[in-house]
Specification:
heterodimer; A: 360 residues; alpha+beta; 6-stranded mixed sheet; 5-stranded antiparallel sheet; B: 535 residues; Pdz3 Domain; 6-stranded antiparallel sheet; two-stranded antiparallel ribbon; 10 strands
Chain lengths: 360, 535
């Protein structure tokens, strides 16, 4: 089912929770709402679920406006961060509760619960209570309860954040797989960008109640439209330097007190056209250690990440770069190093508006 | 020993404290203990001196604060002497307590040191008492003669030469038969001497050679120290020091608790004993002649007594109480849970002020409203049908008033329990297809079951034991509850059978007792604030 949000706004008294959001989730699509905590992503989800009533704007399921439709008539399934299992009911009781309320016959309840439970791998736990289950099992029960009523839309509110890292990884794959297999439209709220990047077909990045971008993961990563997205997506985060881009003959150079590097024309030209100082963004993985490198700096801090070392390199007092280095290079704090920047992947932003100068 | 051996076996150094103890000579340890004990003694003495200096101020304090209460001199003096007398015992205890560290690995040596130090401190304290003439060395009133009980009277067996008895002309062999005109025995005589002021005179009526004679003898202050109290004191000192070494520290709170609880327990014990006996002397049931015994079930006969219109049977009263308590429980639960839910989950104008108002009402003394409520109840009584069940002098009316007073607590309590249930639980139920009403009954209420049980029991018990409201809004015995019934019995002009009253009291306690035994876990929940929604 296609879900359309038009100028959706939610205010709590004077506080604006969600501010004028417009987007469309296609039928069968997996969309992630990504943003820092308090950005309004859960509020948006709860409006789609019908728990909150929008202050302004409309929510459409297919063509039908559902603003005033109570949650029970929307045919949605939702998985909460806390799982929200009913502690006084067994697993079967939990999973059959939506069916019971739909007045499905006892036999069919048994049949459908058993089928979903088997699919989730919790078929032998039906007579337990939630308190007797592990976190991962509770998570599966919550997911099963959402699926058993065969919803048109699946909503997830940070469902994996209470699981340990390994379990989170495997559940990520399972949820994604289930969603594709059943073809149910899904909206997934998370603050974890890795989750959003790996699972979602498209990501809606939200900040302070506003929709910053609504794009595929690759576009968000390679062609960030705003400074916020560039800084928010990617780990370790993108480096930002204030530079001036000058044209000298056919060549473009990004220049500031600490560096002077050549920029390919297709990226340098729009930046140079801007005229004033711009913000140069470059990801740590696009910087390599090279003796021939034209940028010199001193290593201030070395953070071992396992596969890589994350270096905090000071070019001068104001300009710093995070760089990924091979631990085999055995770089220590205080070493002087030379860096080569892959300028084909550099980003430029307007410092005033935060808009990208390359992508619109 | 074992600990250090274990430590050296696994290559750990023995702990520093232990090493210090092992290195120290016994004399050093003893002097340490004695020193701390002396510090304690000194501390007490400074306290006493300070107390004496401040005594006028302390006695004047209530006056300065505007009260006409007076603190009597005897009280302050008693406190000062209690402090003085207590000091040595605390010091002996300190000797032992100081050696507890040593006792953890070498108990025998710790005991040795503590006993030695205790003996030394006893010596020092006794010397101090001798110098200041206090404790066993205090001056006591005496007649300076010895006597013993015989069949005829008190026989004088010895006279101190040149003493007051000697001066008065008493001789060995005289038989004391009375003080003044009052006949006396040995115990009476001793008591009289002990209570006499110095330099007062006691007129002894004696028989000498078959002739009666009245001899006035002056009471003089004498310091008499027998060996027995000194040795007894030493033994006590050593005992205290020794016990302080081996005393299990974990027991202290329990001992204190038992000591504090004893008066309460004695009260309940009396209640039980009294209800099964004709009469009691102290805690002992006694028969008609004052001998031990006299058990009877007579006091429980009220259970089988037939009721009349003016004097209803106990079962009618019990039914009244049960109706009031149950009605109260049901109403309190119903209103509290719904109001608590609304206050916890819904946002409506006046929510905050309503909450604070309820809190104020919770602290509102019920007595001040008695008359106003009386008029309210009387007016409810005029309403057809409803008035028959909830008006003045009806069980419903009584319950209604008590429910009102119980609600602030209940509402706050229920709100607290609801606050602990995550919002997601409710949202989940709504999305699963439940209405708000169904969510409340099927999802939320089961989760605060411990709170419901606790509040229910609480309301029931407070209804069961209530006195003020039922007493005020019921006339006669038609609607009386058990508490009112008991009170009416004590107000009767006829002689009161206290033992029967004890039995009725015990009878009233039975359900409460049963409830507490089975439900104390839930009741604890209420006082702990219901930290868990339970499963």
């Amino acid at each position: 089912m296609r879900i359309t949000l038009e100028s959706l706004t939610k205010r709590f008294g004077t506080v604006v929770g969600v501010d004028d959001i417009t987007l469309a989730v296609e039928d069968g699509e997996f969309v992630a709402f990504l943003g820092p905590s308090g950005c309004g992503k859960t509020t948006t989800l709860l409006m789609i679920a019908g728990i909150y009533k929008p202050t302004a704007g409309t929510i459409r399921f297919s063509e039908r406006v559902v603003n005033q439709v109570p949650p029970k008539d929307r045919n949605i399934g939702m998985v909460f961060q806390s799982y929200a299992l009913y502690p006084h009911m067994t697993v079967f009781g939990n999973m059959s509760y939506p069916l019971k309320l739909k007045k499905v016959s006892k036999e069919e309840q048994m049949l459908r619960v058993q089928e979903v439970a088997d699919k989730m791998g919790i078929g032998d736990l039906l007579d337990r209570r939630p308190g007797q289950l592990s976190g991962g099992q509770q998570q599966r029960v919550a997911l099963g309860r959402a699926l058993v009523k065969q919803p048109d839309v699946l909503l997830f509110d940070e469902p994996l954040s209470n699981l340990d890292a390994r379990l989170r990884l495997s559940m990520r794959g399972e949820i994604k797989h289930l969603q594709k297999e059943l073809g149910i439209t899904a909206i997934y709220v998370t603050h974890d960008q890795v989750e959003a990047m790996t699972m979602a077909d498209r990501i809606a990045v939200m900040n302070r109640g506003r929709l910053e971008a609504f794009d595929t993961p690759d576009d968000l990563y390679d062609r960030p439209k705003t400074l916020f997205i560039a800084g928010f997506v990617g780990n370790p985060p993108m480096n930002f330097l204030e530079v001036e881009v000058r044209q000298e003959g056919d060549a473009f150079y990004a220049v500031n007190e600490a560096l002077r590097v050549q920029v390919p024309p297709q990226r340098g030209e729009p930046a140079a056209r801007h005229g004033r100082r711009v913000i140069l963004g470059i990801r740590p993985e696009d910087i390599t250690l090279s003796d021939a490198g034209e940028v010199k700096g001193e290593v201030f801090l070395v953070e071992p990440l396992g596969r890589d070392d994350l270096l905090d390199v000071h070019l001068d007092a104001a300009n710093r770069l995070n760089v990924l280095a091979d631990p085999a290079a055995r770089i220590r704090a205080g070493d002087g190093i030379a860096l080569a920047l892959d300028m084909r992947r550099v980003q430029f932003f307007d410092p005033q508006t935060g808009q990208s100068l390359l992508w619109r | 020993m074992a600990a250090s051996a274990r430590a050296s076996r696994i290559g750990l150094p023995p702990n520093v404290e232990e090493l210090e103890y092992r290195r120290a000579a016994t004399g050093e340890l003893v002097s340490q203990a004695v020193f701390s004990a002396l510090v304690v003694l000194l501390f007490f003495q400074v306290g006493v001196i300070l107390f004496k200096v401040l005594e006028p101020l302390i006695r004047a304090a209530p006056g300065l604060l505007g009260s006409d209460l007076e603190i009597e001199e005897t009280l302050t003096r008693a406190i000062a002497s209690a402090l003085t007398l207590l000091a040595p015992f605390v010091a002996y205890g300190t000797c032992g307590a100081k050696m507890r560290g040593l006792a953890t690995f070498d108990r025998r040596r710790a005991l040795r040191v503590a006993l030695l130090a205790g003996a030394l401190v006893y010596g020092i304290a006794t010397m101090g008492q001798w110098v200041f003439q206090v404790g066993p060395f205090a001056e006591k009133p005496s007649l300076e003669m010895s006597f013993e009980q015989t069949a005829d009277g008190v026989l004088i067996t010895g006279i101190v030469e040149g003493g007051t008895a000697d001066e008065a002309g008493l001789k060995v062999g005289d038989l004391i038969i009375a003080i003044g005109r009052a006949p006396t025995d040995l115990a009476g005589l001793k008591e009289r001497i002990a209570l006499s002021a110095f330099e007062s005179k006691i007129g002894l009526r004696i028989v000498r050679d078959g002739e009666e004679e009245l001899v006035p003898v002056e009471v003089v202050p004498v310091v008499e120290v027998g060996l027995a109290p000194l040795i007894g004191g030493l033994a006590l000192a050593l005992f205290i020091a020794g016990v302080a070494v081996v005393w299990p520290g974990g027991l202290t709170p329990y001992v204190l608790m038992v000591v504090i609880m004893v008066p309460l327990l004695i009260g309940y014990l009396w209640l039980v004993v009294a209800s099964f006996s004709y009469r009691t002397e102290g805690l002992l049931p006694v028969g008609a002649a004052g001998e031990f015994g006299g058990f009877t079930l007579r006091n429980w006969e009220f259970l089988t007594r037939e009721g009349t219109s003016s004097d209803p049977s106990i079962w009618r009263i019990t039914l009244n109480t049960l109706v009031v308590a149950s009605l109260m429980m049901v109403l309190v639960l119903l209103v509290s849970s719904m109001a608590g839910y609304a206050l916890s989950r819904m946002n409506f104008p006046g929510r905050r002020s309503f909450l604070s108002l309820t809190l104020i009402l919770h602290g509102f003394p019920a007595v001040t409203l008695l008359i106003a409520i009386f008029f309210v109840l009387r007016n409810i009584g005029k309403v057809p049908v409803v008035g028959d069940y909830f008006g003045f002098n009806t069980r419903g009316g009584i319950a209604l008033v008590m429910v009102a007073f119980e609600l602030p607590l209940g509402v706050w309590l229920m709100k607290g329990f609801f606050d602990n249930i995550p919002w997601d639980m409710e949202r989940s139920a709504l999305i699963d297809g439940a209405s708000r009403w169904r969510t409340f009954w099927q999802i939320l209420l089961p989760q605060i079951r411990p709170g419901i049980l606790a509040l229910g029991i609480f309301a029931f018990i407070s209804g069961w034991g209530a006195y003020l409201i039922p007493q005020t809004y019921s006339i006669g015995t038609k609607t009386a509850t058990l508490a009112v019934f008991i009170s009416q019995r004590t107000n009767e002009t006829a002689p009161m059978n206290w033992n029967e009253l004890a039995a009725i009291g015990l009878f009233q306690m039975i359900p409460v007792f049963i409830i507490f035994v089975f439900a104390q876990e839930y009741l604890l929940n209420i006082y702990a604030g219901g930290t868990k929604g339970g499963t």
